[in-house]
Amino acid sequence: xxxxxxxxxxxxxxxxxxxxxxxxxxxxxxxxxxxxxxxxxxxxxxxxxxxxxxxxxxxxxxxxxxxxxxxxxxxxxxxxxxxxxxxxxxxxxxxxxxxxxxxxxxxxxxxxxxxxxxxxxxxxxxxxxxxxxxxxxxxxxxxxxxxxxxxxxxxxxxxxxxxxxxxxxxxxxxxxxxxxxxxxxxxxxxxxxxxxxxxxxxxxxxxxxxxxxxxxxxxxxxxxxxxxxxxxxxxxxxxxxxxxxxxxxxxxxxxxxxxxxxxxxxxxxxxxxxxxxxxxxxxxxxxxxxxxxxxxxxxxxxxxxxxxxxxxxxxxxxxxxxxxxxxxxxxxxxxxx
Length: 337
Hints:
Layout: E1 7-13, H1 17-31, E2 35-42, H2 47-55, E3 61-65, H3 72-82, E4 88-91, E5 95-96, H4 102-111, E6 115-121, E7 135-136, E8 139-142, E9 149-152, H5 154-159, H6 173-183, E10 187-195, E11 197-198, H7 210-224, E12 231-235, H8 246-257, E13 261-266, E14 278-282, H9 285-295, E15 305-309, H10 314-325, E16 329-333
Parallel strand pairs: 1-2, 1-4, 2-3, 6-10, 12-13, 12-15, 13-14, 15-16
Antiparallel strand pairs: 4-9, 5-11, 6-9, 7-8, 8-10
Helix pairs in contact: 1-2, 9-10
């Protein structure tokens, strides 16, 4: 169980003073009564951001100005060490609250002992229909933490050593943390009833060589977790997860836990999807083949595996033929239940 009481907050900041001010103002306006210490770690921002942060007058707000930008992960690690509550809330400085997003997160952690961390829903999930996913108390399982906003158990964070400072600037430290938490037997979730707006990439604005930094971290992550590189195309007649054969469901669970992505195509859009690493759509044969061919030259976005559930109609066999020519690993599951 997590302890009840005020929840401490860690907010790494790098420039973007307007969105940062909006973040902090909305946080106090919407959930101020739930907050303990709010630790703002300024990663060597410019004068405008420093002066703005120093001008803020809120209770229990602590601003620390770092001498250099050591990245999001290191800032969070320092913030967690400087705070005391369990759990602790971590926010990018480019999020904005419109209501009480925090209470549903805290209540979910109280109810589920093996739930390590969860993220609010909101505009970052506009491309998902979260109601199509299986949920426990409105918590949709995910195997990749969304680090722009999450409430996490202190023990879980500390047990795996927090964020790995090897990633420095530029993403993928959250994916690495996800693999470590899942390996410890925890699960992660997105809460459908908790809503937070995210100005995507607003807090990474102005970082020199951002694209190169992301490429470096992506290579580091996939070198460490090569099975996370898999992009699996799953073909079936059935469109409900509960009707898939048991060995197919087990294989999907294992792949998702590894950080792989699964694109499930069926005769109608699949329902009751098990986790956010799986997308489901109605099968369109010509479109699927075009996508396979188009993605074949992308080092990280191409499909790597084709899984099919018997029986295999003509359209599936045609896709399998193209996939074989493109070098995809293939696996077939018995259609029995």
